[in-house]
Write a structure and sequence with these properties.
- Helix 5 links the parallel strand 2 and strand 3.
- The strands form 4 sheets. The protein has a 7-stranded mixed sheet, sandwiched between helices. The chain has a two-stranded antiparallel ribbon with strand order 6-7.
- It has 2 domains: 236 residues, 3-Layer(aba) Sandwich (Aspartate Aminotransferase, domain 2), CATH 3.40.640.10; 128 residues, Aspartate Aminotransferase, domain 1, CATH 3.90.1150.
- With 381 residues, the protein is of the alpha/beta class.
- The longest helix is centred in the last third of the chain and has 20 residues.
């Protein structure tokens, strides 16, 4: 699904030098590389403050902790997303209120969110799924109307641009009160281990976030709040500083792959190629199609037999996961999420794909679909 080795080979000298310099400095925790990367990422995003941390899940948890929410407070979150988004809400004894998503962009909308707001609602966590922003302008207006915090889960869309009605552009993750991201190796901007970051334009919030991420310390051995230990390693920061200047070209490479897939699959029966949110660029962390539910297993099996990996993001709605049943109870299912979980599938997309590989994947997919449509009982056996 992603060629990290090929990407590394192109920047091998810079990466190796940065890692070696870090090792030779022996400043492995909170070394100067961390502050340097925070400043570089803040400049790239146009954010006032960036606080690096150990991973994207920690980033979400720390953001919520810094807001001072209380047990039982409700946080609205889409149910069609990775588990971490809702997991941290439950871990903090807050109540995840799971809502449906738009069937085309797969992202939550202000209209969907508004129906879920109650007197106990304190925050909204829109997820910029698969590489494009949720429609943030109406979400921010809704949050202002109801006095709610907005924490952007930007683990999959770093580098994407959102355009407001006024023509103003902002980077994904810098629109809400707090933004979070992940540097998991497969992300568009990934390190060589775990890593994450939190963004905000509020200096007071930034101060609280830094404290929470560092054992609640205002200064060493003086703990003002209960916090956690979540740090980005200096080596990972050094690697990210090398990769950050390449992020725009990485996004452009993914966009080129997506356009090639779009052209190859445009007229295929029963197939829906990714719909773009008009106000956002799409940096394609994933290229996710919709296919007929009853054909998906056969398509995936055929692809696998022909050396083409694929993934289902995500096969089970969060509210049907055992861990979240206490929060969901007997409420009705969310129809769009149910349908998406049965019909989506993602094809390989990364920065190192050449024309031959693209053609092989596209042709294999078209062959698989043709076989499935012609023979409903097709079996890989």
């Amino acid at each position: 699904m992603v060629d990290l080795k090929g990407q590394y080979q192109k920047i091998k000298f810079e990466i190796d030098e940065a890692v070696l310099n870090c090792i030779e400095s022996a400043q492995f925790i909170q070394g100067p590389q961390v502050k340097l990367f925070e400043n570089e990422l803040a400049a790239y995003l146009g954010a006032q403050q960036v606080i690096a941390c150990a991973n994207g899940t920690d980033a979400l948890q720390i953001a919520l902790m810094a807001l001072g929410l209380q047990p039982g407070d409700e946080v609205i979150v889409p149910t069609f997303t990775y588990v971490a988004t809702a997991e941290v809400i439950g871990l903090l004894k807050l109540t995840p209120v799971m809502v449906d998503v738009d069937p085309d962009t797969f992202n939550v909308t202000a209209d969907i969110i508004e129906k879920a707001i109650t007197t106990r609602t304190k925050a909204i966590v829109p997820v910029h799924l698969f590489g494009q922003c949720a429609d943030m302008e109406p979400i921010m207006a809704l949050a202002k109307k109801h006095g709610l915090w907005v924490i952007e889960d930007n683990a999959q869309a770093i580098g994407a641009d959102y355009t407001f009605a006024s023509g103003e552009k902002k980077k994904a993750g810098t629109i809400g009160h707090i933004g979070t991201t992940s540097f998991f190796p497969a992300k568009n901007l990934g390190c060589y281990g775990d890593g994450g970051a939190i963004m905000t334009n509020d200096d007071d919030l930034a101060k609280k976030i830094r404290m929470v991420a560092n054992h609640g310390q205002s200064k060493k051995y003086y703990h003002d709040v209960l916090g956690v230990n979540s740090r980005l390693d200096s080596i990972q920061a050094a690697i990210l500083s090398v990769k950050l200047p390449h992020l725009n070209s990485y996004c452009a490479a993914r966009q080129a792959v997506a356009e090639a897939y779009d052209a190859a699959f445009r007229d295929l029966p029963g197939v829906t190629t990714p719909v773009r949110e008009p106000k956002s660029t799409h940096v394609f962390h994933q290229y996710t199609l919709k296919v007929p539910a009853e054909k998906r297993a056969g398509i995936i099996a055929y692809l696998s037999e022909n050396g083409v990996p694929s993934m289902i993001y995500y096969p089970v709605p969060l509210y049907k996961q055992e861990a979240f049943k206490p929060f969901w109870g007997e409420r009705a299912d969310l129809p769009v999420t149910e349908q998406l979980c049965q019909t989506v599938m993602s094809l390989p997309i990364h920065t190192e794909m050449d024309e031959a590989l693209l053609q092989h994947i596209a042709q294999a997919f078209k062959n698989a679909l043709k076989i499935e449509l012609q023979s409903p009982r097709y079996s890989r056996h």
